[in-house]
Amino acid sequence: MTQQSTAEKLDQSRLNSTQDLLSLTESIRGRRDEKRPVIIVCHGTGCLANGSPNVAEALRQAIKEAGIAAKVVPQIKTTGCHGFCSRGPLVIMQPAGIFYQRVQPDDAQEIIQATLVEGRPVERLLYEDTKTGERIIHDYEIPFYKHQQRIVLKNIGKIDPTDIYDTIGAGGYLALAKVLSRMSPADVVSAIETSGLRGRGGAGFPTGRKWASAVAASKKRPGPVYVVVNGDEGDPGAFMDRTVMEGDPHAVLEGLIIGAYAVGSNQGFMYVRAEYPLAIKHLNIAIEQARELGLLGKNILGSGFDFDVEIARGAGAFVCGESTALFTSIEGRAGEPRPKYIRSVEEGLWGRPTVLNNVETWANVPLIIERGADWYKNIGVPHSTGTKVFSLVGKIANVGLVEVPMGIPLNRLIEEIGGGTPGAGRFKAVQTGGPSGGCLPYELGDVPVDFDSLTKAGSMMGSGGMIVMDEHDCVVDVARYFLRFLEEESCGKCLPCRLGLKAMLEFLNRFARGEGSLEDLAELENLAKAVQDGSLCALGGSAPNPVLTTIRYFRDEYEAHIKEKRCPAGVCKDLISYIIDPEKCTGCGACARSCPQGCITGEKKKPHNLDPAQCIRCGMCLDSCKFSAVVVR
Amino acid sequence: MSKNSIKEKNIIGFTINGQAVEAEEGWTVLETARYNGFHIPTLCYHEAIEPSGACRLCVVEVREGDWSKVVISCMYPVKEGIEILTDSPRVHNVRRWVLEMLLAECPASKEIQALAAEYGVSSSRFASVDKENQCMLCGLCVRVCNEIVGVNAISFASRGTSKEIATPYKVPSTACVACGSCVTVCPTGAMQARLDQVRGDISQRTGHGHAH
């Protein structure tokens, strides 16, 4: 990716022992010049979309033009996502650690001149604290980063994910070396069990117990055992796993190799959705580089342990994130789940014992091995140890990716780290756990974010998507949105899911039109329970969660739709009307120009009129009015 | 286990609706229930074909200590000491909704109307897309064609609400041997009308005049 890293490439042949790896690590670290300026340009998907490659190119040009040809040429390094996506493109000047945000190519010259030549920060590009208005120089002082505990994400944003030497210099594969030189497979399983690590993909099953079951199953039925990475992250608004795969692919790979060693597997699969081309590219590069160095393939690090891995691309079905559907998809058949009365650790891929873990779970494994299970289990809370990565999206100031210790109260995550909802209001609700999770109200803000507390509140951890809503979001509409998504993604095999989600949607559509009765609301709850109980897999089984939690916590809002034919949030189109406040209207004509129906008329500089009979309630007039003269009733 | 095996078969004891029953290891709850004369409705189940768990009408509630769950009896393996309830309120709730939704899905199926009536469901609140439809996509036809006949002339196409039973490229299948097994196993009468679309004109294909 970067020319500099290629130039630095060590002429390294295959590593034949763990000692070889340790020597390589030492030599990479020894060659590092700690004083050499490094300009980090975030190349996560968010910043890429905001044009960060142009910024990197402009910085390269600016260095050339500034003629900084002294002893040390500044290095430009492109890294994975730093998490603060709403502020991208991000540029960080190391070793000083100066954090620039929303950088444009035009800023490059000034950055080089001020920071590198004159040694002072560019004030206007620094982060401004939303509360105090103070400019903050370093990323670790920004509230968004200050309250995080980044252990899984620790290398992301620091290393070049396409350069294995950069990863090794940062301590990559040291855990694998430890495992192969000093630990038996049983030691590894027991370390993971002691750590208390639970699956990050949603259900939170204890990882160590899963591994131990696979070992037991393979003893009963000798033959191949498989380890699989679930990288089929499909929740709307979730991008945790993508970031890990893109930004630190070797962490996932190292975890997988260690897991394979622990359960006696020689073949692994990474199931990644095809919608993540950058993640697939980086994983492929990582696999190739690891193979070249002898960290993957036959006789890994001279230990006698053989393991290789293949990437299987998902074709975009949400249901393929479900374990049994994922297996059938890898096997080359249509991704449909099967009942799990016999567990995957006994009969998984091709009917063989299989350990399937989520991307983030695998990425936690090297940390636990390297720093010890006791260190790990002291992070978080007793039954949910470690950290969790969340994506914060929706009506929240700091849209992005964060990593926090388990058990952090919901409102600390949203208010302190996320910066709260933009504008004056507080958040109304948070959808945790993706479309199959639940919608928790502001009043439950002190709920600790851990597996068991979220389940008790009717939601779930899920894979870690958090969608924040404010008073302009209608819960009936939100429930409809998630149901529509799941109805579209249902594989159609079992009736409660294929027909039940459609039927639930029919009830909600009635409410959104101001139709239906309170008996219908009670019946919707019964239907939701039938879908929960009757569905084959977790897609249908958890699909009613958004409906049930919104009814549980926002019943009055449902009743307002049904009894008063009113949508309190002003969203449901059949129940609202737009009017123009003649007191506030200046007659500028902006709304009339934006109206696709042409139903706003009036003379220049005089209050305008809106014809409700023609209005389609698209909201264009509301968005275009600078004087708050368009009102929703 | 072969009949001549001298080893005793492992007998598993549990209860169905409070009555003690015995099953051999490897039986499902549905097999045990039917063997003992308990009625559990099914649509996608056939003794000769591997179960798939699609229709969910055979749900039962299983209790083990203070743990309780709704499972499908056609695939749930028997286990010592479990309590099975074939018509608890939770089971009834799943069944009545599935039947009401099926009435709207397959308005033309007499079989489904009769089954729904048995459970007190006579009309549906949900919209019917196709008034002529009888197929509820249980997949018995696909499975019999694959497992028993072995020709794979039909399969599922598309996904979710647009899922359907189809031949490859939706043209008459040359793999079809016109055996009619799919028609025989179809629980709703839907396959009867479709057979001609699946097999096409056999006389054209074989060159032996009428195949019948």
TrEMBL record, chain A:
The segment(s) forming the 4Fe-4S ferredoxin-type domain are 576-605, 606-633
Q: Does the keyword section mention 4Fe-4S?
A: yes
Keywords, sorted A to Z = 4Fe-4S, Iron, Iron-sulfur, Metal-binding, Oxidoreductase
Q: What is its EC number?
A: 1.6.5.11
Q: Which organism is it from?
A: uncultured Desulfobacterium sp
Main EC class of this protein?
A: oxidoreductase
Give the PANTHER family listed for this entry: NADH-QUINONE OXIDOREDUCTASE SUBUNIT F (PTHR43578)
Q: Which SUPFAM superfamilies match?
A: 4Fe-4S ferredoxins (SSF54862), Nqo1 FMN-binding domain-like (SSF142019), Nqo1 middle domain-like (SSF142984), Nqo1C-terminal domain-like (SSF140490), Thioredoxin-like (SSF52833)
Name of one Pfam family that matches: Complex1_51K
KW Metal-binding (keyword) present: yes
Query: In its UniProt entry, what is this protein called?
Result: NADH-quinone oxidoreductase subunit F
What's the encoding gene here? nuoF
Q: Which residues form the signal peptide?
A: none
From TrEMBL, chain B:
What is an example of a GO molecular function annotated in this UniProt entry? NADH dehydrogenase (ubiquinone) activity
Q: Where on the tree of life does the source sit, at the highest rank?
A: Bacteria
Q: Which UniProt keywords apply?
A: 4Fe-4S, Iron, Iron-sulfur, Metal-binding, Repeat
Q: Which GO terms describe its cellular component?
A: membrane
> Which BP terms does GO give this entry?
ATP synthesis coupled electron transport
Q: Which InterPro entries match?
A: 2Fe-2S_ferredoxin-like_sf, 2Fe-2S_ferredoxin-type, 4Fe4S_Fe-S-bd, 4Fe4S_Fe_S_CS, NADH_UbQ_OxRdtase_75kDa_su_CS, PSI_iron-sulfur_center
In its UniProt entry, what is this protein called? Ferredoxin
Q: Which organism is it from?
A: uncultured Desulfobacterium sp
